[in-house]
Amino acid sequence: MGTFADWTFWIVLLVMFILLAYVPRWTTQRRRKQQESELEIGDQVLTIGGLLGTLVYFNLDENLARLRIADGVIVDMLPGAISGKWRPETGEQAHEHGQGPASME
User: Fold this and answer.
1) Which of 22, 86, 92, 102 could form a disulfide with 44 if both were Cys (CB 3.0 to 4.6 A apart)?
2) What is the chain's pLDDT, residue by residue, as a tens digit (105 residues)?
């Protein structure tokens, strides 16, 4: 049988692995849920594909979002494809938690 120090080493190693592997994922999920809860109909949004549009429908239960990208053109997409709010006056993505603007080059 191993000594207490041997077991302590493996327990600490396991805890560090869990923290390094899962904590970033948990914080990303929490931030994503907060961002989705802040979206409102009429917001200007940017998608992960680079589309800019106005949110005209948003329902997480149906897993559906609709963007108006031009007059008479409405696109259905998954809510996860929305990168975030867009500030048309500055041309920058609206960020929460003190993050800087997205690079659009």
Assistant:
1) 86
2) 568 778 899 999 999 999 999 999 999 889 888 888 888 899 999 999 999 999 999 998 999 999 999 999 999 999 989 988 887 776 666 654 444 444 333
Burial class (CB in 10 A: 0-12, 13-18, 19+), 99: exposed
Is residue 88 located within the same domain as residue 50?
yes
Whether 76 is in a domain gets the answer yes
Which of 52, 58, 49 is closest to 76 using CA atoms?
58
DSSP string, 27-75: HHHHHHHHHHHH--TT-EEEETTS-EEEEEEEETTTTEEEEEEETTEEE
Amino acid identity, position 38: E
Q: Is 30 in the same domain as 46?
A: no
Q: Can you give the pTM of this predicted structure?
A: 0.61
Task: Write down the residue that tokens 């327990």 correspond to.
Answer: 11
Distance CA 7, CA 1 (A): 10
